[in-house]
Amino acid sequence: MSELINDEPGWTDFRIGDLETTNEHHDQETQPTKEDNEFPNNDDDDYASPTKNTPLHSQTLYIPSTQSYYQSDNDSIQNLPSHFDHTPLRGFRTLNDLYENTKELLLAKDEPKNYKEASSDQNWIETMKVELDSINRNNTWELTTLPKGHKAIGLKWVFKTKKDANGDIIKHKARLVAKGYIQQHGINFEEVFAPVARIETIRLLLAITANNKWEVHHLDVKSAFLHGDLKKEVYVTQPEGFIKKQDQGKVYRLVKALYGLRQVPRAWNIKLDNTLKSLDFKKCALEQAIYTKTLKDSTLLIGVYVDDLIITGTPKKEIDKFKLKWKKNSK
C-alpha cells in the first residue's frame, strides 16, 4: 500500500458557492460517472482511493453556485412585457356588476311553508290537486265518521321545487304527509323496520354485472309508500284547503299507507316482498334486500333500497318481461 507523503489535506481546492443549491443543477454538474461508483478492489485500505491516472492535488469538489440561476430567473422576469402587473387585484366593484350574477338568487321565491302561503300561487294549487288525485286513484282512504275511542292524525302539506342545472324551476311538487310523530307504538302501529341493501352489497352486485357484461336497469317506484297495506285502523283529518262543506266533521280511514306514518316503510316492504315472490323470485338468506330468479336459460338479480330497484341479469328479454309484469302487479 502506498503512503501519502504530503501531510496536507487531500483536497487542495475546496470551493463552495451558494449553499441554497437546487437538485436540478446538482444532478447535472456533479453526477458521478460509472467509474466513480466502482470501489477499487483493495482489501488493505479502509477508504476508497482517488481515481487512477489523476493527480491527487488536482481533485476538486465543486458545489455549483446558484447565483447565476437566480440571476437568469430574475432577468426573465424583468424582461416580461411592461403591461404585466404583479400587484394583487384590488379595488371596488359596482352594485350592477354584483347584481348581474346574483339577481336571480336575490329575487328567487322561497318554497311555501304551509298551505296559506301556497294558496296564493296557482302553480302550487294545481300541484296539490295532482297529489290528491293520485291518492284517490290509489284507493288510499275512504271518508267516514270518526269512531269513539279513536283519534284522527293531522295532515300537512309539504312543498318542494325541482330545478335544473341553471337554477330554473322545472317542476312544483306537493306532498300530503301525516303527522306520524303523534302515533303511539302498540296502538297505531307495531313493526317499523324495513331492510335495505347495504352499499357493500350494491357494489358486489355491480361487480358481478360488470364481470358478466350484463345490463343494469333501475326502477324508481312512483308513490311507493302509498302501495303498502295497513294492518291497524288509522284515521286522518281532511287535508287543509280541500274540505267540502257537506263533509265537515268527517275524517278519512286509511286503507293504504300514507307518507309520514311510522309503519309506512314496513308496509311497503311487505307489499314489495309479496309481489316479487309472486313473480317466482326468492329472497337471499344472507341479504334480505336481494332477490334472485334462476331458470335453466336465464338469471335475474334484484337489489332493493327503499323504493329503488336495481335489476340485472341475462338475457335482456327476461328483464323486459319482468318490468312489464311488475308494472301490472304494482298497480
TrEMBL record:
Residues 50-59 have a biased composition (Polar residues). It comes from the Eukaryota. Residues 15-37 have a biased composition (Basic and acidic residues). Residues 1-59 are annotated as: Disordered. InterPro entries: DNA/RNA_pol_sf, RVT_2. Residues 138-329 form the Reverse transcriptase Ty1/copia-type domain. It holds the Pfam family RVT_2. This is Ribonuclease H-like domain, reverse transcriptase, RNA-dependent DNA polymerase. It comes from Tanacetum coccineum. The lineage of its organism: Eukaryota, Viridiplantae, Streptophyta, Embryophyta, Tracheophyta.
